[in-house]
Design brief:
- It comes from Amnibacterium kyonggiense.
- Keywords: Cytoplasm.
- Residues 37-56 have a biased composition (Basic and acidic residues).
- Residues 126-167 form the RecX second three-helical domain.
- This protein has helices spanning 15-18, 33-57, 75-90, 95-104, 109-121, 127-140, 146-155, 160-169, 174-189, 197-210, 216-228.
- It is mostly helical.
- Among the domains are: 75-125, Arc Repressor Mutant, subunit A (Orthogonal Bundle); 126-171, Arc Repressor Mutant, subunit A, CATH 1.10.10; 173-232.
- The chain is elongated, with a radius of gyration of 42 Å.
- Mean pLDDT is 81; it is low at 1-27, 31-36 and 53-64.
Length: 232
């Protein structure tokens, strides 16, 4: 009996040599380990739910990890953005004007174009929309004709093809244009009352031409304006 009670490790050899069949050894894990492991299982379920919530609330193109990575802003890109936003805050600007402003600040060409691309993508730079707004202001507030408007748009660095397209889309009714021309002529003629007729005529004609008007419509407007002002 004593030999049968010997434990493995007290003598060399295997169990098979002893002819003793060992029962499986009891678990050496602490009694609470099984409960801890069991407690861990629901956590993976919660993690999966959290992941599903994140996917549900993800913004396409922004939070999508499978999308193209967004470049980290650099010092140069942040400076370009600050310069551009400051310029747009002060006044409306064309893409060409913003490009000139960024270049004047010493920014590299690639940083300039990257910022302009960003501004176009969010709608802060749009030469066609800019030209449309400027045409309306120049007609209504400045009383300009199309020739002066065209020149002004080019001076604001709007591309020629954009200028042509916008003016073609915003063609004025002839009567509306004639009424505005006459209003501008009448207003100016009232300031020329002390001049001789020929001098007043010459000055008023030159003024209207600088406003972007020309042709027989100017001559007719000048005659009418001088007559209304009592110059003759």
């Amino acid at each position: 009996m004593g030999e049968l009670l010997q434990f493995p490790g007290n003598r060399a050899g295997s169990d098979e040599q002893d002819g003793v069949e060992r029962s499986s050894a009891p678990s050496r894990h602490p009694a609470g380990t099984a409960r801890v492991d069991a407690a861990r299982e629901p956590r993976s379920g919660r993690d999966d739910a959290d992941a599903q919530d994140e996917a549900r609330w993800a913004v396409p193109g922004v939070d999508d990890p499978s999308g193209p990575p967004r470049p980290e802003p650099t010092r140069a890109s942040k400076r370009a953005e600050n310069v551009a936003i400051a310029a747009l805050t002060r006044h409306d600007a064309s893409e060409g004007e913003l490009r000139a402003k960024l270049v004047a600040k010493g920014l590299e060409p690639e940083d300039v174009e990257a910022e302009l691309d960003r501004l176009r993508s969010v709608g802060l730079v749009d030469d066609a929309a800019f030209a449309e707004r400027l045409v309306s202001r120049l007609r209504d507030r400045k009383g300009l004709g199309d020739q002066a408007i065209r020149s002004t748009l080019r001076g604001r660095l709007v591309p020629q093809d954009v200028v042509d397209a916008v003016l073609a889309e915003q063609v004025e009714d002839e009567e509306v244009a004639a009424d505005r021309l006459q209003s501008v002529a009448d207003d100016r003629a009232r300031r020329l009352g002390s001049l001789a007729y020929d001098v007043a005529e010459r000055r008023l004609t030159a003024y209207l031409m600088r406003k972007g008007y020309s042709g027989s419509s100017v001559r007719a407007a000048v005659r009418s304006a001088l007559a209304s002002a009592g110059i003759g």
